[in-house]
Each structure stands twice: as structure tokens, then as C-alpha cells.
Amino acid sequence: MDTRDALHHLRKAKTAHLKWRTYAQALAAGVSVGDDKAPLQHTGCDFGRWYYGPGQSLREVTDLYEDIEEPHRLLHEAYAAIYELARAGKYTKASDKLRGLESISTSLMAIIDACVEDIRDR
After folding, report:
1. Which residues form the Chemoreceptor zinc-binding domain (predicted)?
2. How far apart are CA 45 and CA 74, in angstroms?
């Protein structure tokens, strides 16, 4: 995988991530989202399929690559919990979970940014 392709996928992951965080915020506020916004396993989203597939070649490029896995998995778990709480009408609990998701989100974005910088610097 060339550098440009890797950077493209990491930037695309950030964009998708921000969209899903917005969906979580909407759910916690009581706004319904479409069935196409149902939670996915962290290995099943577009980024996850890339990360566990062609993206594996980045292990040779940056030591930070593996640092993405855990927060990405936790983010999906938090989103799934928010989704289920909102569907059950438990918006206060969904809002509580949202704070955790936002913290995980901040960490994940920082790791992705660090990966991008590390790859660019090589």
C-alpha cells in the first residue's frame, strides 16, 4: 500500500467516524436515525474491513497502527449501547453513555492524527 492510499483511508475513517458520532448524539437527544445507522461490529464497518484487510500492511509503516484497534472497538460498543438505550426510550442513560463515546472518540481521533503524521514523516 502506498502512502497516499494509507492517508486517504485514515482521513476517510475520520470523516465516517464524525458522522457516526453525530448519529449517536442524535439518538441520545431522542432523534431517531434510519435502520441503516444500526450498529455494526468494529470489523464490519468500512474502516474495519480496511483495517483488518489491506490496512494491515501499515503495521510495517507505523508503530501506532495497532493503537487504533482498541478505541475503535470500544467506540462501536458504546454506539451499540446508545442505539439500544435510545430505541428503548432511555435517553438519559443514552446521554450518559454518549459522554463515554465522546471521550473514546477524542482518543481515537488523536491516534489517527498521530498515525497520519507518522506516515507523512517517513
Report:
1. 17-82
2. 14
Please write the tens of the pLDDT for every residue from 19-44.
999 999 999 999 999 989 999 999 99
Give the closest residue to 105 by CA, choosing from 71, 69, 80, 81: 71
Architecture of the domain made up of 3-120: Up-down Bundle (1.20)
Find the DSSP H helices in the chain: 3-28, 46-51, 69-87, 91-120
Give the global pTM: 0.90
pLDDT at 110: 96
CA-nearest of 117, 119, 16, 12 to 75 is 16
The x, y and z cell numbers of residue 23, run together, are: 448519529
